[in-house]
Write a structure and sequence with these properties.
With 308 residues, the protein is of the alpha/beta class. Helices cover 44% and strands 19% of the residues. Helix 3 (95-105) runs parallel beside helix 5 and helix 9 (248-259) runs parallel beside helix 11 (282-289).
Length: 308
């Protein structure tokens, strides 16, 4: 992360503690990146003011915006920093949409937002703001949890080496390069992590003579070789490469806990529609399983539905 980069920090309404702003300042101190905070203001009472004239509705909105701007000034004042922090208040019902549109319009490099543990059942059906950001932002999204970023810590770079696809190859390279840049600024180590699938149960049942052990070993070796090829290309030591059997979200969460990682860097192609609302994707499954921060990077050819 270089000094000419721009961080857009999503402020949590009515919260005095703002972990995302604290993290952005920490990053800026190490990299010189500029910071803008954005607060989305809206109140359901505005929807009930339809009987008012246009000028009266504008007055109601302006009054609400003024109060939110004053509150935001107070929040920024609680986070003293030698560099100026730009402040933006947007009138919008959907925080994720306002943030993504503003970030795209102003060419921000990273969106920074604090995240919390979601209720498991609701997470399967209802997509909260951070899930929308993960799915729909073409710009990297840093999801912040309250985990320290000590020097000489560990950064996990989660790779997907299974598909023999040029888009995934490019995404893996981007993930490693971003991880190494962050590691340089934070004086951290980069660990390459990859999960590979075990033998499907139905195959073992339907084909009694099928050699499950040999199949698993072949898959493991294939993944290890691909990970090591990338590690050698970027001079990452072999003891910082971890290839394990299991679902990606389980492997990533397990490694993050074992290494006490400060950050996980993960790539996603993004997903929208009914399937996303019901099952999500790897990035979304990982969010709640981590106690550290998560940086989600989109594939180069990803186009946000908000840009269409």
């Amino acid at each position: 992360m270089e000094g000419n980069q721009k961080l857009l920090v999503v402020i949590q309404p009515e919260e005095q503690e703002q972990p995302a702003l604290s993290r952005a300042i920490e990053l800026s101190k190490k990299s010189g990146a500029s910071i803008t905070v954005i607060l989305c203001a809206y109140h359901t009472s505005y929807d009930l003011s339809a009987i008012l004239s246009a000028s009266e509705r504008d007055s109601v909105r302006d009054s609400m915006l003024k109060k939110q701007k004053q509150w935001l000034e107070g929040i920024v004042a609680q986070h003293p920093y030698e560099m100026p922090i730009r402040q933006e208040v947007k009138w919008h019902k959907d925080t994720y949409e306002a943030v993504i549109l503003y970030a795209m319009e102003k060419d921000y490099h990273v969106i920074v937002k604090a995240t919390r543990e979601h209720d498991t059942f609701k997470s399967l059906i209802i997509t909260p703001t951070d899930w929308h950001l993960v799915r729909k932002s073409p710009i990297p999204v840093l999801m912040v949890k309250e985990h320290a970023w000590p020097e000489h810590g560990n950064i996990i770079c989660a790779l997907n080496v299974a598909p023999d696809d040029e888009n995934y190859r490019k995404l893996n390279i981007s993930l490693i390069q971003i991880s190494l840049d962050l590691a340089k600024a934070l004086r951290a180590k980069v660990h390459l992590v990859n999960g590979y699938p075990g033998t499907p149960i139905n195959i073992a049942v339907e084909l009694p003579d099928f050699d499950v052990h040999a199949y698993n070993e072949a898959i493991k070796i294939q993944h290890e070789n691909r990970v090591m090829d990338l590690a050698n290309k970027y001079n990452i030591p072999s003891d910082q490469c971890h290839v394990m059997e299991g679902l990606p979200e389980d492997v990533i969460s397990s490694c993050a806990k074992t290494l006490d990682a400060e950050l996980v860097v993960l790539g996603t192609t993004g997903r929208t529609g009914i399937s996303a609302a019901l099952i999500g994707n790897t990035a979304e499954h990982v969010i709640d399983g981590l106690t550290c921060d998560l940086l989600v990077i989109k594939a180069e050819n990803y186009v946000s539905p908000l840009a269409e």
